[in-house]
Amino acid sequence: PAFGLFIFTIARDPLRIIILIAGAFFWLVSLLLSSLIWFIAVKASDPQDERLQKGLLIFGVMFSVLLQEAFRFLYYKLLRKAIEGLVALSEDGCSPISIQQMAYVAGVGFGLMSGAFSMINLLADALGPGTVGIHGDSQLYFLTSAFMTMVLIFLHTFWGILFFHGCEHRRWWEIAAVIIMHLTVSGSSFCNPLYVGSLVPSYLLMAAAAAWAYLLSGGSAQNLRRFLLCKC
């Protein structure tokens, strides 16, 4: 369902495709830089010290989250400049795409690239060696990983809307809320293999972020109720 966001809402608009690809590129660069720093830290430390290696893993995850949000801010600045250029080039003095639409497409770009890398890692684990759950561990690894990938794609989409809205209106607490939610979801992965400890909080945060993004995008509680009740 998450990858359907691209097919149904972006694929027919060339400008949106460009914005999505650029957003995916920004996320990819943030991952590259955070991975490089973590790799250097691991190589410079004692590989036999398990406590230190776990600490470096936690540091790598938290640093990656902060770097992703920093690149999201840089991407907002770039798109803001792009809107000014589009307005200057247009005949009617209006931008062909609003900042709210850019926020959505940029969020989908971040989410799809994040989901693509999660699926690649999942498929790499599926190749072996070994069989999941053969030593009594949970056999739900692949299923829960798929659900976690989906929730991250949706969360990045909603976070993009919230983050851009916070930047646009200088509501820094909205940006801080996005960072805190991102840190919480990423940190909850350390609860695995107790998958309930990571999936349940992530889906609750996704529901809250979805409702928040819906309201900031101009939606109303009345329209949402009519949609859920299938009333025109």
Automatic annotation (TrEMBL):
Pfam families per the UniProt record, alphabetical: Aph-1
Gene Ontology annotations for the cellular component aspect, listed alphabetically: gamma-secretase complex
Topology in membrane: Multi-pass membrane protein
Residue intervals passing through the bilayer: 17-41, 56-75, 102-120, 140-163, 175-196, 202-221
Places the protein is found: Membrane
InterPro entries: Aph-1
Predominant location: membrane
Coiled coil region boundaries: none
Keywords, alphabetical: Membrane, Notch signaling pathway, Transmembrane, Transmembrane helix
BP-aspect Gene Ontology terms: Notch signaling pathway; protein processing
Function: Potential subunit of the gamma-secretase complex, an endoprotease complex that catalyzes the intramembrane cleavage of integral proteins such as Notch receptors.
Quaternary context: Component of the gamma-secretase complex.
Similarity-based family: Belongs to the APH-1 family.
Name of the molecule in the record: Gamma-secretase subunit APH-1
Gene it is expressed from: Aph1a_0
